[in-house]
Design brief:
By secondary structure, this protein is α/β, with parallel strands linked by helices. It contains 15 helices and 15 strands. A hairpin with a 2-residue loop joins strand 3 and strand 4. The structure holds N-(iminomethyl)-L-glutamic acid and fe (iii) ion.
């Protein structure tokens, strides 16, 4: 069995399916009996297992050093994520640890998380910076992120998240944004260290006006943008992302109707991050019904990070999206394949089993696709194929 393209409410399931590849690209995907005569150097019988596109985790912060389990304990005792952040913990804590880590230490810590994702069927992962917040430390994080794609058989897309939070040594957020736009971004773009630019538009992040400046600078350097939008409050982040033609607007718990309509018009992907919702015990669910009604494509990602979502299992993210957000099995599976690829600007390359796309596959020991979403903490991955091998 194989799931091929799929549309809004179908996975495009194919019984007795065959996927053929040449030089890492799919040359056929469909029913065996419809396949042209192909001379294959190697034939693999999947023995009735299910083949899906390799999973795309389109929102992670997996390159960081240190651990924040002490903050988890504080939160269990009643302190909020924002309170911890305002007291100098949170992202700033991880910034300290990440700045202090050597390249090798940062790489080793990150590889452990990446390997867990690969073992769960991930073939493409997006990785953000944002725990450096100085030119040198951001570059270190971006380079380590890129290097992971050379050390493992996985596509890595890197996003520059220098606008994650105000660095501890900088009292003036506007001055930091000035430096980010005039000093950091030119280097990041010039050295091709990032494929996109992200920002955290929030009371504990940056204002819409500051985000707008980051996005304008990104556009001037020809880099697409994404946004952590409306996660903890409604600052109109969804509409702002749409205005700049962002690849995606992520989180969106507090997004209002006008933001959702704008996202739909702009063709932005809404990235749902149920791990962060769960782990921070948020109560405001993202407006799934309205996103659905407006036809906004929804992706699902782990948001792997030490503070709000220490999660490396994309399948567990799907289970949470279904259980906590009431997303359907089909939405969940498209959310970690087709729509996730689109959230990275890779819709033509990845995310479905279609001729011409990269032959990145996950082969599962399951009877039905719903098992991938239903099970909690199981890993039915049989094999992972990356670029045809
Ligand atoms: O996606 N929202 C901002 N960034 C992360 C949290 C990062 C952290 O707490 O270390 C997020 O939730
Ligand atoms: Fe995030």
């Amino acid at each position: 069995m194989a799931t091929t393209a799929g549309d809004a409410d179908s996975l495009g399931e194919v019984a007795d399916g065959l996927v053929a590849s040449r030089a890492g690209r799919i040359v056929f995907a469909g029913p065996v009996k419809a396949a042209p005569a192909l001379e294959a150097a190697k034939v693999v019988d999947c023995a009735g297992r299910w083949i899906t596109p390799g999973l795309v985790d389109c929102h992670t912060h997996l390159v960081y050093a240190g651990d924040r389990s002490h903050e988890f304990e504080l939160r269990l005792a009643g302190t909020s994520y924002e309170e911890i952040a305002r007291a100098g913990g949170g992202i700033a804590f991880t910034v300290g640890r990440t700045r202090a880590a050597s390249d090798a230490e940062l790489r080793a810590a990150s590889l452990r998380r990446l390997d867990a994702m690969l073992a769960a069927g991930v073939t493409t992962v997006e990785i953000k910076s944002g725990y450096g917040l100085s030119l040198d430390a951001e570059i270190k994080q971006l380079r380590v992120a890129r290097s992971l794609g050379e050390l493992r058989r996985v596509n890595v897309r890197v996003s520059f998240l220098g606008a994650h939070t105000r660095p501890p040594e900088c009292a003036d957020a506007d001055a930091y944004i000035d430096a980010l736009c005039s000093e950091m971004l030119p280097v990041v773009a010039g050295q091709r260290l990032a494929d996109a630019v992200d920002a955290f538009c929030e009371s504990i992040g940056f204002t819409p006006a500051q985000t707008r400046r980051v996005f304008s600078a990104a556009a001037a350097h020809g880099l697409p943008v994404k946004l952590h939008a409306d996660q903890l409050s409604n600052l109109g982040g969804g509409a702002l992302a749409a205005e700049f033609g962002a690849l995606s607007a992520d989180h969106l718990e507090y997004a209002d109707e006008s933001s959702i309509a704008a996202l739909a018009r702009a063709g932005c992907v809404a990235v749902m991050l149920p791990g962060a919702f769960y782990f921070t015990r948020q109560t405001q669910r993202p407006p799934i019904d309205r996103l659905r009604a407006h036809g906004v494509p929804m992706a699902i990602a782990t948001d792997c990070n030490p503070g709000t979502s220490p999660l490396t299992s994309p399948l567990l993210a799907l289970n949470m999206a279904a259980t906590l957000f009431r997303m359907t099995v089909c939405e969940c599976l498209l959310g970690v394949t087709r729509h996730a690829a689109r959230a990275l600007g890779l819709a033509d390359e990845l995310g479905t089993l279609e001729v011409g796309k990269a032959c990145d596959l996950a082969i599962w020991d399951i009877e039905r696709p719903a098992e991938l979403v239903c099970a909690i903490g199981a890993n039915p991955l049989h094999a992972r194929v990356w670029r045809g091998e």
